[in-house]
Amino acid sequence: VPGPATPVIDVPETASPSPEPARLADLDEVRATVARLDDAVRGPGLPYYLPHDGRVGATTSVGGQELLSFSSYNYLGLAGHPRVVAAAQEAVERYGTSVSAARILSGNRPVHTALEEAIAGLLGTQDAVVLVGGHATNAGIVPHLYGPDDLVVHDALVHDSLQQGIAASGATRHAVPHGRADLVEEALRARRHRFRRVLVVTEGVFSMDGDLPDLPALVTAARRHGAHLMVDEAHSVGVLGTHGGGICEELGVDPGDVDLLMGTLSKSLSSCGGYLAGHRSLVQHLRYTLSALVFSAGLTPANTAASLAAIQVMRDEPERLARLRGNAEHFLAGARARGMDVGPAVGVPVVPVIVGESQAAVAVARGLAAHGVSANPIVFPAVPDDQSRLRFFLTSEHTHDQLDRALDVTARCLREAGVPLATAPVETA
Ligand code: PMP
């Protein structure tokens, strides 16, 4: 048996200045979390991990209380659509509840290939591969392709899953203030030559601010400086573009100009999982090498079939996309007319209402719930502490009447929490 490639070095034991508790459950950070939760439970409780009783669409029920829902990514209302539900049920009947192996071994089913072809068709890429989680996809792909000799230039607001992937890669990280494509170009010009590979990462729709990147400018900058470009389309596929094809379709960018389009199945596509789409050779390379895929059980039959059916329903019922965009514009205009601070939102179905301090955002969310509206508070560290917000996710299923009611309640709760509202309607940018 060959020995280890590197000799085992016996590291001398050194006394730790302050030994940590022997059991994980006794670590300081664990105790601190438990103490904070205990405090919250003694007080008014926390608006997290609420048990929703059934399907969540335009409305939801929590512990029997009916609420207007603005806290799910069910953008096209397909998570409970009869065709999507039936497809998941049929897949369970045919293939069982699990594929019980990694796809590269015995976990592959025809429905996986059908979904990958449908995703590639929707996005306009040569190929696509699906994985079991959106977060796992980002956290796995970045360290798979990039390492300590490389540079990753990213918008400061990219999702945690990308930030985790970048950190795990050991690449040098260059965060650019949100939305500043000009600073991406500047970073590439100044730093490109010192690194082996350079990746530029952005999102199709930013999940915190509800705005879009200047993708054409990023494509140009990446090409000019020999960098790769990756776009996380979690909130843009099934939202942007006439056919829901995402930011490339929306802005008229050739999908072939983006090296890697990543997305999730958990939002418009009504399931759970992630995907990577791009050039045929790259996707084939990933099928045989990406550890988050090769060493992980295949996406379940039900999840796979549900997303495939969602893509088909989106194609057959294009009015859903039109309603979604109409709702987003109606809600944004209504929020501005009531003097709310919606940051840089542009009328896509993620609309932030900036409150300020974290505690105020939690108080407003609690007030909304008491008045029958569910919207999540987003607080530090997800956003800077003075930028805490309520985040409203809209669906094609909301009626304008529901949107107006929610806006009126929100304005009232903001006033009650002492959050200033602009007296004159805020001009559309
Ligand atoms: N990327 C973005 C931009 C996200 O918002 C999310 C989750 N909300 C993810 C990736 C992770 O996807 P999933 O929840 O499907 O694991």
From TrEMBL:
Q: Report which superkingdom the organism of origin falls in.
A: Bacteria
Keyword entries, A-Z: Biotin biosynthesis, Phosphopantetheine, Phosphoprotein, Pyridoxal phosphate, Transferase
TM ranges: none
MF term (GO), any: 8-amino-7-oxononanoate synthase activity
Q: Which one GO biological process term can you cite for this protein? A: biotin biosynthetic process
Record's family? Belongs to the class-II pyridoxal-phosphate-dependent aminotransferase family. BioF subfamily.
Oligomeric state and interaction partners are given as: Homodimer.
Which named protein is this?
A: 8-amino-7-oxononanoate synthase
Counting on the full-length protein, the chain here runs from: 683 to 1111 of 1133
